[in-house]
Write a structure and sequence with these properties.
single chain, 205 residues, 8 strands
C-alpha cells in the first residue's frame, strides 16, 4: 500500500513523511524526561485491514461516479454511491481511532507495545532495557525492477540476537538515525547501522 502511494505521489509523499517523522522526533525529545516516550506509529493487522477496506470503498465510489457519467446515473449508481460513501467515512473514522506503536517505559525500564482501538488498550512487553543489545537501522531492497528501491526501519536487537522492528518501513531514512540514537540514549545501549538486505538477483537482474 505504501509503495503504491509513493509511486503515485512521488517525492511529495516522502517529504511529507520526513516532516511527520521530524515532528515525532521533536515531540519525543520534549518528552524525554517524562515517564513514557511514544515512538513512531507502526502498521498492525487491524489498521492495515481498515486502510484496505477504506481504499476499496473510496475506489468503489470513484469508479461508480466514472461509470455513471458514461451510462447515466440510475438507481443502482445512486445506491452504490451512497453505500460506498458511508463505508468510506466509517472505515476512515475507525482508522482514526486506531493507534499502534511502541513506548519507552522509563519507570520500569522496558519497551512496551500498545494497540489502542477506541477505549480498548492491549499492551505487551517487548524487552527490558537490560535485555537489549543495540538499536539498529536496517535497510531492505524492494520492488520488481532491476534498480529496486530501498526501505529503512529501526530494529531492537535483544541479547539473544532476536531482531524486532519498532518503526514503520520508510523509503527515506531521514530522521531515522536521530530517532534511533534517541532511543539508544534512553535505553543506554549502542546505536548501529544494521542489516543491509539486497534482493536475490539472477545473472545481475
Amino acid at each position: 500500500m505504501e509503495f503504491l502511494i509513493v509511486f503515485i505521489l512521488g517525492k511529495g509523499y516522502c517529504s511529507f513523511e520526513d516532516y511527520l517523522r521530524s515532528k515525532d522526533l521533536s515531540n519525543a525529545r520534549s518528552r524525554q524526561k517524562s515517564d513514557t516516550i511514544p515512538l513512531d506509529a507502526i502498521a498492525c493487522p487491524l489498521d492495515t485491514m481498515l486502510l484496505i477496506l477504506s481504499a476499496v470503498a473510496i475506489l468503489t465510489f470513484i469508479f461508480n461516479f466514472v461509470f455513471g457519467c458514461y451510462d447515466g446515473f440510475g438507481s443502482t449508481h445512486i445506491y452504490f454511491a451512497i453505500s460506498s460513501a458511508i463505508a468510506s467515512a466509517l472505515f476512515l473514522w475507525l482508522l482514526l481511532h486506531c493507534d499502534s506503536r511502541y513506548f519507552l517505559d522509563m519507570n520500569n525500564r522496558r519497551i512496551v507495545y500498545r494497540l489502542t482501538f477506541f477505549a480498548k488498550l492491549s499492551e505487551s512487553v517487548l524487552a527490558s532495557f537490560s535485555n537489549i543489545l543495540s538499536i539498529e537501522l536496517d535497510s531492505r531492497e524492494v520492488g520488481d525492477t532491476a534498480a529496486g528501491s530501498w526501505v529503512y526501519y529501526l530494529v531492537v536487537v535483544k541479547k539473544d540476537l532476536t531482531r524486532v522492528s519498532i518503526s514503520r518501513s520508510s523509503y527515506s531514512k531521514s530522521g531515522l538515525p536521530e530517532t534511533g540514537q534517541l532511543i539508544a540514549d534512553a535505553v543506554k545501549c549502542a546505536f548501529r547501522v544494521g542489516n543491509h538486505i539486497e534482493k536475490l538477483r539472477i545473472m545481475g537482474l
